Amino acid sequence: MTAEITPELYGIIEEKGIEEVSLKETHGSPKAVFGLWMAANVEFATLTTGALATCLTGLSFFQAMRSILLANLIGAVILGYFSTFGVDYGRPQMIQGANWFGPLGNRLPSLLNFFGGFSWFAVNTTAGAYALNLVLHTGLIPAALGMSVVQIAIAVVGYDLIHAAEKYLMFVLVLAFLGLTFIAVRHLGLSAPANPQTIAQMGGTSGAFMLSTAIMVGYQVGWIPYSSDYTRYLRTNNDAAGVKKTVFTYAFWGALISTVWIEGLGALIGSSIPFFSKPSDLLTVWMPEWFKLPFLVAVILGTISANIINIYSATMSILAVGIKLKQHVASISTGIIGAVISAIVINSFVESYTNFLLVLGYWTMPWIAVTLLCHKTDRVSRLPVSAAFVAWIVAVAGSVPFWDQQLYTGVFAASHPQFGDSTFIVSFVIGAVMYMLLTKPAPARLAAAE
After folding, report:
1. pLDDT in tens, 85-95
2. Which of 440, 436, 435, 430 is nearest to 382 (CA)?
3. What is the pLDDT of residue 175?
4. Is the N end or the C end of the chain the one with fewer CB atoms within 10 Å?
């Protein structure tokens, strides 16, 4: 059945919601996803993530760079591939899962992604609030609330304004962070050593490396459940393979270049300070005075570039849960929740952020494994319920002994600290294996009907 065109509110505000995009509604260039993912990651939260690789785990700069490159290669390949689903299905990423996890089972990962979306909003708003407070001296909470209003307004308008905003924000952010890169390398060099005491606390170099990689994977895969949201209007029945190839290429390079660069820069800066408890600690004393104001402005703009994506995709997820709201109402509600969370965690940023990144990967990696197999294979459940949902739940539960973070340390992680947090590997493998065991090839007649 061909989807109907959904009128926009006042001719401006997108009200498509989670409905399938019709061929009449398709528009835009697949190359636009490069600027989208560049702008989403060339920002202060990405810098903060990279700083954890050296400041938190004690790795040297070059050890941290290997971790960052490995994690983001994995994440960018997955992001690029999942972005092509929008061309195939013409629907937001999370609503696609109803076909595989079942209408009821799909609500749980959609709810978790909604939680992730407003939590990311809170994380980024907190980072931006520190910058805005340094510029205007408004106080942290008023700064967070003020930024929230701007971000919510853009996300409410929807898909087209988000793509347009990211296109222009990308150039400003790239210039600002190029300036910071030049200044940092000139001041610090590239030979930052490891911290033996911190590494010992991580279970040795291997444990520190695995923990760093898990954090970086958590950051990158946090975007995966959003990916089709920004390609669904590229749905086509004309050279779909060519469009998907372009989407994959530009999404992959946009995500990889931005995260490796900015996280690497964060790792370099993080290696120069003994500890940081809030984002503004990374604005170090060696930063020239003339550069501080334009860079702080870039931090604020970077917060906006990331958060308009977080609000929009969290909105798609809460609609996928089954909450009956207009799209613009859901966007406003999501932003308000994120603003409240930001005000709560604003004084315990680093601890909350590290735990959040790890937890994000705990549910997302097995969901990725199962969703990939559902999309690529033609199999049916051996159970009277969704095999995809059961496989995902088993994978999340089975990975608990490997968790290694401040909120909870699993039995395996506690007794084998040299493996660090290997949950992202274990849960992915369990999810894939369980799905294959719980399904069987679809009968030929079903395959033909599909």
Report:
1. 999 998 889 89
2. 440
3. 93
4. N
In 10 A of CB 185, how many CB atoms? 12
Length of the chain (residues) = 450
Instruction: Select from 228, 219, 291 the least CA-distant residue to 260.
Output: 219
Rg over CA atoms, the chain: 21
Q: How far apart are alpha carbons 215 and 359 in whole angstroms?
A: 9
Query: 417 near 207, Cβ under 8 Å?
Result: yes
3 state DSSP class of 150: helix
Contacts of 200 (CB under 8 A, 6+ apart): none
Reading the block at residue 152, the tokens are 């919510």
Sequence spans of domains, the chain: 23-362
User: Which neighbouring-strand residues pair with 440?
Assistant: 380
Is-contact 53 217, C-beta < 8 A? no
Architecture in CATH for domain 23-362: Orthogonal Bundle (1.10)
Answer for the pair 58, 204: CB distance below 8 angstroms, yes or no.
no
Q: Which of 262, 296, 287, 310 is nearest to 51 (CA)?
A: 262
Task: Assess contact for 270 and 51: CB atoms under 8 A.
Answer: yes
**pLDDT of residue 16 exceeding 50:** yes
User: What gap in Å lies between CA 426 and CA 419, rounded to an integer?
Assistant: 12
Q: With bands split at pLDDT 50, 70 and 90, how would you rate the model's confidence at 4?
A: very low
pLDDT digits (tens, 9 = 90+) for 406-425: 778 889 988 988 888 899 99
**H-state helical runs in 13-106:** 32-41, 44-51, 61-83, 85-89, 93-96, 98-101
CA 240, CA 245: separation in Å to the nearest integer? 9
For 130-190, what is the HEC assignment?
HHHHHHHCCCHHHHHHHHHHHHHHHHHHCHHHHHHHHHHHHHHHHHHHHHHHHHHHHHHCC
Q: Tokens 């702008």 map to which residue?
A: 39
Considering all CA atoms of the chain, what is the largest pairwise distance in Å, rounded to the nearest integer?
70
Which ranges of 224-288 does DSSP label H, i.e. alpha helix? Answer: 240-270
Give 441's contacts (C-beta < 8 A, 6+ positions apart).
Answer: 378, 379, 380
User: pTM, whole model, 2 decimals?
Assistant: 0.86
Q: To the nearest 10°, the Cα dihedral for 219, 224, 225, 229?
A: 120
Q: What is the DSSP letter of 16?
A: -
